[in-house]
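Thread: "does anyone have the structure for this chain?"

Original post by V.I.:
We have the sequence but no experimental structure in hand. Need at least a predicted one for the grant figures.
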Amino acid sequence: MIFIEALNRASTQTNERKLIARNKYRPIISNKDSVDLSSAAHQVKEIHLDSQTKNTLTASTSIFANLIEHVLSHILQSALHLHSPEELNLDTKEWKIFLQVPPLHAEKTKKTDDYLAPEVPQRPPAKQLIFHIPVKPLYGIPIEMTVLLSPHNGSPETPIFFHTLPKENLLPILRTPYSPEFLEQQITHYHILLDQDGEQDQLSSLHAHINQSKIAENNTQSAIYGLRIWRAKNNVLTPAVLGDSKVGLLFVGHYTPIEGNPVTEEERARQANNLYTKA
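Reply from O.Q.:
Generated one for you, tokens below.
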């Protein structure tokens, strides 16, 4: 994904800056996404993304998107490209995308003592994956950022790399056009969840608006069909990336999700008629 220009860059300093501590105190800006796994997290919510509810795509958001792109390219062993709606001119069109938010963790299953299932060979259990990414500013030494990647427990099948990759992974340098001062102000730890439970054409509402010549060729591999990445923050999951057979990978992390289904014109007319009848 392209890097968005930082509007407020700090003044240039020398290259001889020390690598910042991951837990360095920063007023105002949080350095870590946190997730509180409460019992309410079992509930599956219906949400939709609306073209009218987007926030400005900032340099900070662009860094988050590029971290995801870097991780996906590593685990899928392909140089992938995350498109932004702005890059595909979708920010000027009207559309809605409907999704179901997965639970943050699974319900515990009760075991019965009177029945023992036969033992069958099983692959290693799925695990959370940690990716350490040296993020290189325009000059100076890299700043380490980490991405914690989790499978979501409501998924019927966990992608194979959660079983085969090592728990901790050091990725190649991610180069950026930003100053060291700007990168030091950014969040350095993200927690995301990944599943492949979406429909292959989960972005079908966008197909009519897409110019296929703008779609990266390597974004049409089947491994990304139905792929969904959720950002976990403050006990809430919000969609960040969606994969589709025609659009490829689309970054939607700067769109504010709306709970529930929108009311159609027909439904609004029916409700108005009911009110008129009752009156």
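V.I.: this helps a lot. Residues 59-75 form the longest helix (17 residues).
O.Q.: and The CA atoms of residues 1 and 66 lie 6 Å apart.
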